[in-house]
Design brief:
Layout: E1 2-7, E2 10-13, E3 18-26, E4 33-39, E5 46-52, E6 57-59, E7 67-72, E8 77-82, E9 91-99, E10 102-108, E11 112-117
Length: 118
C-alpha cells in the first residue's frame, strides 16, 4: 500500500505562482509513476502532469510551459510548481500513483484546493 499526502494549496492571484507537494509513504518501491490531476466544479478530472520512474515527464496541454513536475527521491516527495496561474486553473488538485507496471492510478491523495483570483 502507498499513502499520498498533498500540501501547498491555497489562494493566489492570477499571474502568481504556487507549489504543491505530495509526500508518499508505504510501499514506495512499488510506485511506477506519480502524477497530478485536477478537477474543477462541473468539469471532468484532467491529468495535469506525470513523472515516470525513470524521470520522464508529461504535461497536459493546458499547463505546458507553465507548470513543472519534479521529485525529491530522498524525501519521497513529488512537487508541482505552478506559474503564470490563471483563474481557469482553479480546481482541486490530487496526487496519484500507479503500481509498478503503470497501468491504472491505484493510489490517491485527499486533494488540495487551488483557487486563482482574477
Amino acid at each position: 500500500q502507498v499513502q499520498l499526502v498533498e500540501s501547498g494549496g491555497g489562494l493566489v492571484q492570477a499571474g502568481g505562482s504556487l507549489r504543491l507537494s505530495c509526500a508518499a509513504s508505504g510501499s514506495i518501491s512499488s510506485i511506477g509513476a506519480m502524477g497530478w490531476y485536477r478537477q474543477a466544479p462541473g468539469k471532468q478530472r484532467e491529468l495535469v502532469a506525470v513523472i515516470f520512474r525513470g524521470g520522464t515527464t508529461n504535461y497536459g496541454d493546458s499547463v505546458k510551459g507553465r507548470f513543472t513536475i519534479s521529485r525529491d527521491t530522498a524525501k519521497n516527495t513529488v512537487y508541482l510548481q505552478m506559474g503564470s496561474l490563471k483563474p481557469e486553473d482553479t480546481a482541486v488538485y490530487s496526487c496519484a500513483a500507479t503500481g509498478p507496471r503503470y497501468g491504472t492510478w491505484d493510489y490517491w491523495g485527499q486533494g488540495t484546493q487551488v483557487t486563482v483570483s482574477s
